[in-house]
Write a structure and sequence with these properties.
Elements (H helix, E strand, L loop, with lengths): L1 H43 L3 H10 L13 H13 L2 E5 L5 E6 L5 E6 L3 E6 L5 E6 L5 E6 L5 E6 L4 E5 L5 E5 L7 E4 L5 E6 L2 E7 L5 E5 L6 E4 L5 E5 L3 E6 L5 E6 L4 E6 L5 E6 L9 E5 L4 E6 L6 E8 L5 E6 L4 E5 L5 E5 L22 E2 L5 E5 L5 E5 L4 E6 L6 E6 L6 E6 L4 E5 L5 E5 L6 E4 L5 E5 L4 E6 L5 E6 L4 E6 L5 E6 L3 E6 L5 E6 L4 E6 L5 E6 L3 E6 L5 E6 L8 E2 L6 E4 L5 E4 L5 E5 L6 E6 L5 E6 L3 E6 L5 E6 L5 E6 L5 E6 L4 E5 L6 E3 L8 E4 L5 E6 L4 E6 L5 E7 L11 E4 L5 E5 L4 E6 L4 H11 L6 H6 L14
Helix pairs in contact: 1-2, 1-3, 2-3, 3-4
């Protein structure tokens, strides 16, 4: 009896412990759900660092492996990383008025309201020198063209020259006055200063001595021409052009407004003058022909005030941007001054408060060195990146808590943006983001294919060139010119060769290492698909007219001609390369030998076959059809193993999982479905708003990537649950761009390449497991949540990291 009672007691105790564990796990799940939600909100608000740390708090870690795994936390973390663009935060200690790169792009100088400037190492984020000496807020700071010196100007009425390495003050240039100009000449031998109640003055950059001055009225702005032979000054009614060598006046142009910004075109033939807010009576910029001394055009029409430094030429001079306080921009022809594009929805009537010191709102915009993109900031602190060529928004960057006064792209990397803000920070941003690399093309590419070792990516299709890229660095390695518009390309199984196919019917084989063409042969019709055989000795090409052809990859000898259909023009090779599946217009799939001889007919579909794929061991083949079904067939017997019904639209893609246990289908009904090959209910992947073009398992089978041209998105899913993790790529819905949306997974599953009708291909980082994702996130944001952040998110304070004051 005692034994029975003891056993019963043990069962009760075990049940109690299980219930307690279940209650604890449920409480943790609820807490982690809340953290996941807070992470999503923080990412949406632009605080992606906090979003990443919040999501990490909700996932298992080395320190707390007992935490239950939560899908919502994984999705929140991935999306926070996808949105994360911040590289470094530089904290000078006061509001930052200006910031600039050195010529090699590895250091930054900041100018602050605490009367100092500081030099920073970009790689480490460390402050390497503090420039102390000014008696007022420092408003300007820039490196000399050789990077050895720094020129600053402040509200103490002086400009100062410093040694960039040691921070030693070399010379004081005075007087400069309020609203100062202080710039190096393009060759670095001269410095130009100007300001309120001071003449425009040239100084010797080596000795710090005055070279010459030109008289001006009570207010003066100034700028060098691109070749440094001339400089311009602006007063209340005139823009004057002076010879740098002797100070001679060469041109004087009467203006109706008070110019604040002066910028020469790169060739020096034109000059644009931006307005000084309410002092100009009309918010109008002007473009001048300097050879004739006349105004070419007024750049007018903005619904809000133009930023004081927001009138700029592109580096090539083809465009002029006038940027408003709301962060929108008007883009003008750089020669004619005619309006080309409007970037963003303008906010009418936006202007600084009448009591605002104009020196506190000297905002600007910046073109990338290649002029493809334009960065603008709104008065609320948000930054937008625009595609200047396509007049569309690329991305919005949030993170600053106050006005951003200065923007500048790195001189060596167009993807790195520097911003200076009144929130007390300067920040470095990766415009693409922590997980994305953008590969720019002159024309819209139509294909992207990874090498078998996942190291390289081959892109093209918009012109006659195929581009070979390094996946990790995003650097173009080789450009293969085929002299004809490329439709498709592929790697050989060993990755040493590339084959390209053109609509003119020409196939070219290139050596990857050298970029040299090693073979060329021609078909009788335009080619739209090409694939190496498994042994690398043969090529399978699909013609635009519904025929596939098998060639010897070296000699170009025709091995077989295979009839296909317009719905599935390519011939599908089995994993061992011994079988070919083709589909004709008669709704029948056919298994063929590599010589083209028919082995078996797959009869059953009620409409034409649109997709096909072999399983990993080649014993099964799946087909999708316009009849809205998919079928699984035995390749040895040619019989139907299973019919998969459920889609309400044509099946557009089929793919087996890496272990062969599941089949993935995509359909024009906007869903993808995962079916068990053995039988049972399917998992439905819902989220797309248009027909799907492709669907693919990751190499480990944990994830699925789908693409839709109709809704113009690429999406990542968890294969087990069928839940969407993230939208990896999407187009601006307001802008129609022709072309397919396509996605290609690397063989190692670490990257997906996205083609979406843009003049770029995006490579997005993927992770094999949640653990890899967590480790990457910890490396990306190595800090913990601050005590004050923990308090704001209602998290318990961590004594090891201090407490939040107040």
């Amino acid at each position: 009896m005692l034994a029975l009672m003891a056993g019963a007691g043990a069962l009760v105790a075990l049940k109690a412990r299980e219930e307690a564990r279940g209650q604890r796990d449920q409480a943790l799940r609820n807490q982690f759900l809340s953290l996941s939600f807070l992470s999503e909100r923080s990412a949406a608000a632009g605080n992606t660092e906090a979003a990443i740390r919040l999501a990490l708090e909700a996932l298992p870690s080395k320190e707390q492996p007992e935490r239950p795994y939560l899908f919502e936390a994984e999705a929140a973390l991935y999306n926070a990383l996808l949105a994360h663009r911040q590289i470094k935060i530089l904290r000078p200690g006061a509001s930052v008025a200006d910031a600039a790169f050195n010529p090699t792009g590895d250091r930054v100088v900041t100018a602050s309201y605490d009367k100092t400037a500081a030099v920073w190492d970009i790689a480490t984020g460390a402050e390497t020198a503090i420039l102390k000496g000014h008696d007022g807020a420092v408003e300007r700071a820039e490196f000399s063209p050789d990077g050895s010196r720094i020129l600053t100007a402040a509200r103490d009425g002086t400009a100062r020259l410093w040694d960039a390495l040691s921070g030693e003050q070399l010379y004081i240039l005075r007087p400069v006055g309020n609203y100062p100009t202080a710039v190096f000449s393009p060759d670095g031998t001269r410095m130009l200063t100007a300001g309120e109640n001071s003449d425009a003055t040239l100084w010797d950059a080596r000795t710090g001595k005055r070279v010459l001055s030109v008289s001006s009225d009570a207010y003066t702005r100034a700028a060098f021409s691109a070749d440094g032979r001339s400089f311009a000054t602006a007063g209340k009614h005139f823009v004057s052009i002076w010879n740098t060598a002797d100070g001679a006046l060469t041109q004087s142009i009467r203006v109706t407004s008070w110019p604040y910004t002066l910028a020469f075109s790169p060739d020096g033939s034109r000059l644009v003058a931006g307005p000084w807010g309410w002092h100009s009576h009309r918010d109008t910029s002007s473009l001048f022909d300097l050879s004739k001394g006349i105004e070419i055009a007024k750049l007018a029409g903005s619904k809000s005030d133009t930023q004081l430094n927001g009138v700029i030429f592109s580096h090539g001079g083809q465009r002029i941007a006038t940027i408003s306080l709301d962060g929108t921009a008007r883009v003008w022809d750089g020669t004619l001054g005619t309006l080309d594009d409007l970037l963003g929805q303008e906010v009418p009537g936006l202007r600084p408060d009448i009591d605002t010191d104009e020196r506190d709102v000297e905002m600007n915009g910046a073109f990338t060195p290649d002029d493809r993109f334009l960065a603008t900031a709104a008065i609320n602190g948000s930054i937008r990146i625009w595609d200047a060529e396509r007049a569309s928004l690329v991305t919005t960057i949030a993170g600053h808590d106050s006005l951003v006064e200065h923007l500048e792209f790195s001189p060596v990397d167009s993807n790195i943006l520097l911003s200076a803000s009144h929130d007390g920070t300067a920040r470095l941003w990766d415009v693409d983001g922590a997980l994305t690399t953008a590969l720019s093309h002159e024309y819209r590419p139509t294909f992207a294919v990874f090498s078998p070792d996942s190291i390289h990516l081959l892109t093209g299709g918009g012109d006659s060139a195929a581009h070979l890229w390094d996946v990790v660095s995003g650097r173009e390695i080789i450009r293969l010119d085929t002299h004809q518009i490329i439709q498709n390309a592929t790697f050989s199984p060993d990755g040493r060769r590339v084959a390209t196919a053109s609509l003119e019917g020409v196939v070219r084989i290139f050596d990857v290492a050298t970029g040299h063409e090693t073979a060329q042969f021609r078909s009788d019709a335009g080619l739209i698909k090409i694939q190496f055989g498994r042994d690398g000795k043969s090529l399978v090409c699909a013609w635009i007219n519904g025929t596939a052809q098998l060639w010897h990859a070296t000699t170009g000898t025709e091995l077989a001609v295979i009839n296909t259909s317009s719905n599935l023009p390519q011939a599908i090779l089995s994993p061992d390369g011994r079988l070919i599946l083709s589909a004709r217009e008669d709704n029948v799939g056919r298994l063929l030998t590599t010589s083209g001889a028919e082995l078996r007919a797959l009869v059953g579909h009620q409409n034409r076959i649109t997709a096909a794929a072999f399983n990993p061991d080649g014993q099964l083949v799946a087909t999708g059809s316009l009849d809205q079904t998919a079928r699984i067939w035995s390749t040895t017997e040619g019989t139907s193993v299973r019919t998969l019904e459920g889609h309400t639209g044509a099946v557009t893609a089929v793919a087996f999982s890496p272990d062969g246990q599941s089949l993935l289908t995509a359909s024009r009904d906007g869903t993808a479905r995962i079916w068990s090959v053995a039988g049972g209910p399917e998992t439905v992947l819902r989220g797309h708003s248009g027909a799907l073009d492709s669907a693919e398992f990751s190499p480990n089978g944990l994830y699925v990537v789908t693409a839709s041209t109709e809704d113009r998105t690429v999406r990542l899913w968890a294969a087990q649950s069928g839940r969407q993790i993230a939208v990896l790529g999407s187009q601006d819905g307001a802008i129609f761009r022709p072309g397919f949306t396509r996605a290609a997974l690397s063989a190692d599953g670490t990257h997906v390449a996205i083609v979406s009708g843009e003049t770029r291909v995006s490579i997005v980082r993927l992770f094999q497991t949640p653990k890899e994702l967590v480790e990457f996130a910890r490396r990306t944001v190595p800090r913990e949540l601050t005590p004050c952040e923990r308090r704001s998110f209602f998290l318990p304070e961590d004594p090891a990291n201090g407490t939040c004051p107040g």
